[in-house]
Amino acid sequence: MILHTIGVLGMGVMGSNLALNMADHGYDVAVYNHTPQTTRQFVRMNPHEHITAYYDLATYIQSLERPRKVMFMIKAGEPVDTMIDKILPYLEAGDILIDGGNSYFKDTQRRVKHCQEQGIHFIGMGISGGEKGARRGPAIMIGGAKEAYEEIHAIYNDIAAKAPDGKPCCAYMGPDGAGHFVKMVHNGIEYADMQLIAEAYLLLKYVGAYDNRNLGNIFHQWNQGELHSYLIGISADIFAETDENHKFVLDYIVDKAEQKGTGRWTCLEGIEEGVDISLIMAACNARVLSQAVEREKAKQIYPSGDITVQHTDAFIEAVRRSLYAAKIVAYAQGFSLYKQASQVYHWQLPYQRIAEIFRAGCIIQADFLSTISQAYEGDSQLDNLLFYPFFIDHLKAGEAALRHVVAIGIASGIPMPAFTNAITYIDAYRSPCMGANLIQGLRDYFGAHTFQRIDQEGAVHHLWQEHYKK
C-alpha cells in the first residue's frame, strides 16, 4: 500500500484546489470528506495519479506516512473542534494536524494546547489567494511548534506562490496562533484596501462623472504605476465587464457588501490591544451599514445635495494620489497591530517576511509590499511605517490631494469613511494637542480618575471648583 505524504480533509473549493496543487508538485495526497459523495465527485472530475480518495476515516489516517500530516480544509469554528475529537483516537505522538481555514487565532491557541496534551502537533495555517491561489500558488502563513513546521515546510514552500525574486510566499510566523493572526490582520488590511478603492470609484463616478468604460481605463492606467496590485487590476476588469445583454455587470450588483468575520476580529483585537486601526474599522463598519435596510428610507428623508462635476485629468490624479496616501495609512495601521500583538503574545513576528509573502498569491499582493519589506529589513523594530523615509515622502506628496478630495467628497455627500479616517489618523498622530487633556480633566472631575501634569511626575487628582453654579 502506498503511504501518502499528506492528507487533505475537506473537499470544498479550497481543499480540492490545494490537493490538486500538492499532487501537481509530485506529492501523494490522500483525500477525504465527511460526505462520501463530495469525495466521489471530486475524484471523478479531477482524476490525478497522485491523489487517492478514502471513504473511511480510520483507513484514511492509516494511509499516511509518519509523522502523519492531516490538513483540515473545513468550516471554521465548531466543525474544527468536532473533527479534532474524531481524528485524535487514530493518531500517534508526533503526528501533525493542520488547520488551513480562517479560524480565530485564540481558538487555534486553545487547540494547540489541547492537542499537545495528546502528544499531537496542531498547526494554524493562514492561506490567502482564494480559489485560484489555492490551485496555482497561495500565500501561506504558518503558526505552531517549530519542529512541526520543519516537517511540513517543504510541501508548502513548493505549492506557495513565488514572488518576483523567486522566494516562496510561505513562512513561519511563530508559535500557536501566530499564523492565523497574521492571516486575520491581512484580511483586515484587505477590507481597508477594498473600501479605499470603492471610495475612489465613488469620487470618480459622481464628482468626476466618468462612466464604467472610462473607469476601467483609469484603473488600468493606475495599475501600470505605483498603485500596481491585484485589487486595482481586477477592479479595472470589473468596470469593463458586460453581460450577455451588453449591460455593465457592476451596475446590476446589489449595493450590499458581506463579510465572513475576519475583519471584525481584527477590529476587536485592535481595541483589545489599544492600537488605532480606525481605517480598518471604518471599512468594516461600511460593510455593516451597506446592509442596513433603512438606507432607502434615509435617502428619502435626507436627499443628497448638488455635486459640482470635476471631469478633469487633475481630479483623476488627485484621487490617485489620495488613494496611494490612504493605502500607506491602512498598511501602517495593520503592521502596528502586528507589532503590538507580537509583544503581547511573545511571537516575534517576522515583519519583513510577512511583507515578502504578501507580494504574490494573496489578495493584497502589490508592488507596494516590496517597500514595506525593505523598511523592516533596515529596522526590524520600526515604530510605524509612517516613519520610513519612502513613505514619509509619499505621504507628504499625497497629503494635500487627500485633504482636497475628502473635502470635495464630504461637500458632495459622498460616503468616505476610509479616506476620512486616513487624513484624521495623520492629523491626530502629529497633533500637538488632541483634546485628550480636556478628556482627562472631565474624567477626573466626575470620577476622580486622576491625570498627569506637564510640570511634575506622577498621577494627581484635582479638587475641581464649581465656578458656574445654577
From TrEMBL:
NADP is among the record's keywords: yes
Residues at which substrate binds: 102, 128-130, 186-187, 191, 260, 287, 443, 449
EC number in record: 1.1.1.44
Catalysis performed (reactions): 6-phospho-D-gluconate + NADP(+) = D-ribulose 5-phosphate + CO2 + NADPH
Secretion signal, residue range per the UniProt entry: none
Protein's GO biological process: D-gluconate metabolic process; pentose-phosphate shunt
Binding site for NADP(+): 10-15, 33-35, 74-76, 102
Domain 6-phosphogluconate dehydrogenase C-terminal stretches: 179-465
Keyword terms, alphabetized: Gluconate utilization, NADP, Oxidoreductase, Pentose shunt
Top-level taxonomic group: Bacteria
Keyword NADP: yes
Pathway(s) annotated for this protein in UniProt: Carbohydrate degradation; pentose phosphate pathway; D-ribulose 5-phosphate from D-glucose 6-phosphate (oxidative stage): step 3/3
GO MF terms, alphabetically ordered: NADP binding; phosphogluconate dehydrogenase (decarboxylating) activity
SUPFAM superfamilies, A to Z: 6-phosphogluconate dehydrogenase C-terminal domain-like (SSF48179), NAD(P)-binding Rossmann-fold domains (SSF51735)
Family: Belongs to the 6-phosphogluconate dehydrogenase family.
Annotated function: Catalyzes the oxidative decarboxylation of 6-phosphogluconate to ribulose 5-phosphate and CO(2), with concomitant reduction of NADP to NADPH.
Subunit structure: Homodimer.
Protein's UniProt name: 6-phosphogluconate dehydrogenase, decarboxylating
Taxonomic placement: Bacteria, Bacillati, Bacillota, Negativicutes, Veillonellales
